[in-house]
Specification:
Length: 281
């Protein structure tokens, strides 16, 4: 059995609460397990399951009595650490015009592949976690997925909803055929228009320092800056095994600026950003 993982990241956010769930399956050569990670503004839980609890169709993942997919999320978990139950219903999904990986989707043996299922969709429903009610009305959802062997050694990832739009950016150290390069995939959805920023379109990293990343592509420029580092520990795959600890802030302070042809399209500070900053410089 080869080393591999496959998982989804489904984020739901209202004006006051954030809830993200990560259903995943992992193979480590001699061991196969699956898990559900649940992240809120202030906490994170990892619940492990036997591999036979996992079922997957093209648009749904089932882990025991829990379901994740295009219609929404159903949670029913009861362990010593976490009692979690509830239903979240999704509205129409907003997929990208084409695969976020572009031509890299066709390249074999990549360490990690990314997919964006929906940049923005409506969310309604309630989830109860250890008695606390996470209530979503007129809320937004985001859905992406990862598969491969390991998360990149160094990377940043961020996602944010904002007035008139939503954005995601990932900048990562990519090993390929004995070499390394900095790979960029990003999307800014602004007033209904999709701006794609990616290595395969000529995007380059202009600066990475002090929890800030600046990328440029032709006349487009995107700056993301993490202003608060209160990340919750999450498990991430290394050769399929969920042994690496990363830190994600599901809802934190960050700054974003998007420029086109030298003019600022938008610039704002928010306390509702999702961020992982795993660059060590």
């Amino acid at each position: 059995m080869h080393h591999s993982f496959y998982g989804w990241y489904l984020k739901c956010q209202s004006n006051t609460q954030t809830l993200a769930v990560i259903p995943a399956i992992h193979n480590t050569g001699n061991k196969r397990t699956c898990s559900i990670q649940v992240i809120t503004d202030n906490d994170a839980w990892t619940i492990m399951f036997p591999a036979n609890a996992f079922q997957c169709t093209k648009r749904n993942i089932f882990i025991g009595e829990n379901r994740f997919g295009e219609k929404g999320v159903h949670l029913k978990i009861h362990t010593q650490q976490a009692a979690i139950r509830g239903n979240l219903n999704f509205g129409s999904l907003f997929p990208l015009k084409y695969d976020i990986m572009g031509p890299f989707a066709l390249v074999p043996f990549m360490e990690c592949r990314h997919r964006v299922w929906s940049m923005q969709h409506s969310v309604s429903g309630n989830v109860y976690i250890n008695g606390q009610n996470f209530s979503f009305r007129n809320a937004w959802g985001y859905w992406e997925g990862d598969s491969g062997r390991s998360f990149p050694k160094e990377y940043i990832w961020t996602h944010c909803f904002f007035s008139d739009g939503t954005l995601m950016l990932s900048v990562a150290d990519i090993p390929m055929m004995g070499m390394h390069f900095t790979g960029i995939i990003g999307v800014v959805l602004w007033q209904g228009k999709e701006y794609r920023i990616a290595t395969y379109l000529g995007a380059k990293v202009f600066k990475i320092q002090n929890k800030m990343v600046q990328v440029k592509q032709g006349s487009l420029e995107l700056e993301v800056r993490l202003l608060e580092t209160s990340g919750r520990p999450l498990k991430a795959p290394a050769k399929g095994d969920m042994v690496r600890t990363i830190h994600e802030s599901a809802s934190c302070r960050a700054f974003y600026r998007f420029c086109k042809e030298g003019c600022t399209v938008f610039a704002f500070e928010t306390d509702r950003a999702s961020f992982e900053f795993e660059y060590f410089s």
